[in-house]
Write a structure and sequence with these properties.
It is built from four helices and eight strands. It has 164 residues and is α+β, with helices and mostly antiparallel strands. Helix 2 crosses helix 4.
Length: 164
Amino acid sequence: MTGDRESIPPHADLEQRGDTGAKFAKAWLTRPELWPPSAKVMGIRPLEADPERGFCRNAYDVSPEFGNVMGIVQGGFISAMLDDTMAVGALFKLGGRYFLPTLEMKTSYLAAVPLGEVIVEGWLRHAGRRIVFLEGRIVGSGGEDLARSSATALIKSLQPRKSG
């Protein structure tokens, strides 16, 4: 994100009305305008939002356009799904008044991720005053890890939108 106040995400309005991370988590499940545009392109379907744990589970309906020459999901898209899901899980715990630009991220590709439905889990490992530590995984049909990721992100406050 550029920090440009014109690009403030829609979830900022939720928090400005005094809503909590729990309300943001509930809204995440039913309000597509809260979903990142990149996640929409990859076919996101939120499945679980747990503000107590800072946990998010999403399904992505990954089309062949996101595949590599081997017919599996290309690694950059795997990382993008993990990045979105980990940050959103953290926002459930922190509240919707923040955005979390990623400072660094490591993804381990453990097995091929097939095209089609991909289940991604992300959670807040630890929150400091300015930095959060995130973890996530892509889950195979048998419950095995296909990819794992860890990241650090900066906690940035959103400014209220100006009316009029």
